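Milestone M4 deliverable, item 7.
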Amino acid sequence: MDPTKAMSVLSKACPYLARTGLTALQGLAATGVQSLGGSRGVSTSAVEQARCSVCPGHTGQSALLAKASQCPVVGPSIRANEPSKASQPASQAPPAACPYAKCVKDKADAQAASVASQPATHASHEAAFDYEGLYQAKLAKKHEDKSYRYFNNINRLATRYPQAHTAQPSNVVTVWCSNDYLGQSKNPAVVDSMKAALDTYGAGAGGTRNIAGNSALHLRLETELANLHRKEAALVFSSCFVANDATLSTLCGALPGCVIFSDKMNHASMIQGIRHSGARKHVFNHNDLDHLEQLLAQYPRATPKLIAFESVYSMSGTVGRIPEICALARKYGAITFLDEVHAVGMYGPHGAGVAEHYNYDASLRAPVGQRIPGSVLDQVDIITGTLGKAFGIVGGYIAASSSLVDMIRSYAPGFIFTTSLPPPIAAGAVASIQYLSESQRERYLQQAHTREVKADLAAAGIPVVPNPSHIVPVLVGDAESAKAASDMLLARHSIYVQSINYPTVPVGEERLRITPSPGHDSFMRARLVAALDSVWSSLGLKRTVDWERLGGRCGVGESREHSELHVGWKRGVDHVWEDAQLKQAHDYERARKGGVAISPVIPETVQMISATA
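Output delivered:
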């Protein structure tokens, strides 16, 4: 094709060139234009020689065809024959954005505005969007990848803890996956407090905290929480998901140029709050202090920074490296945001969480509410927790300095525009916090039972993800198989353990999550281990030795040195609750009860089964 025909093709293809006469284009372009279309393009000499003198905003500084190469119509053919950037001299750097494209965009915007200004016709023949089709397609995708979630009908029985009945009240099962970790939801001290508040104040809160929903019970609850964590103030939310979302989005949105550093395994509520803040974020590998420091070192110390992490990660049972992360925060001028949701009530001599547990002896000696300078708990800037797990009720909270708490109270929509917790809930939470601040029985039994379950499963070759906490994650590695194992445990063995799949855990790390409680006695434990062994054999699931042959996964089948990089807590220490601390808790509780031995309260139905077994 000769240059004249080539220019004719260009002028027809480009909306800008179409308004330029062919003679003018011939004068602008140098010789050497070759074919346009198919796998052929424009010669390098044409790109180098053709100069544009009429392009708006450009005064002969770039090649005409280099401009045209940015056009969506002929650009791909032209760019295929351009030299690489590495071989281009600095004087021939790619030109700025093509004005032809801007011309087209302006025209499209004008057309869109014209359409928007015209009233909709709502013609009867025009089809509306297929909303139901979208819903069904999204659900079909969940079914296809086996991540669709089924909710079992499980009705926990207050007088037969840790048992429940299914849809049929006569079908009683043992629950091994509840987050009512210590059984506080049925504690008489808690239930009686809730009943009294219900009789006195009724069932509902009456409004937001600003409108009729701020009672003496709410203020008392926040005082109890502040004292528990040895902080100046606390603020209660409807859930800890809301607490995390509202606090992170409000705080980091207010800090100018804030940068957030988030652990890879953080809970969805924290991820949501970080996203809503609009702040820049970096995700560091789980418990990887070197990676975290590399990211922190990229910013001046004066840049506002927040490190968000957890104490106990609920799906793996690993523990955050709290002292080390606090030290990095001080070094690089950051504040710390610690989620203790799966730790409050269960760790520390008063149940304040893992941060308190690091200074166990000092916390045991100091009165509740008194600050311990230099302690790990004192180094954490913001603590979030829940009332809905170990405390057995519902709700979430933050504990921090009085000024930070007041700022969140004054600015966070998730707090301001939400109905406050009902008075009976607040009363039950106060009673539960006070009870667990004194009693060591529940913590001792939970930790003792967890150790026994982990040891028995290890002996049976059932693959447990290693960790130093109360969580017992049993690795399956496949969503469909995890669901089948959960169903088989329920149908054949009357044991309820929910399967965990994506997005709660990564694909390929699906698992069963077991949470031993103070009420799970040795007979229940023996039945659980036997049932899991049977299910693993029936379904042909991988045991620990199988994961070892495959190189390991999630710490299962891996060397201790490798797994310790991720599990947290102290190197070489297997449990957060160390032997001496458990003995102290046992001796304290036994003395408090006049020498009575510490043992779980076994439901009557279990005693009957045990007697006939």
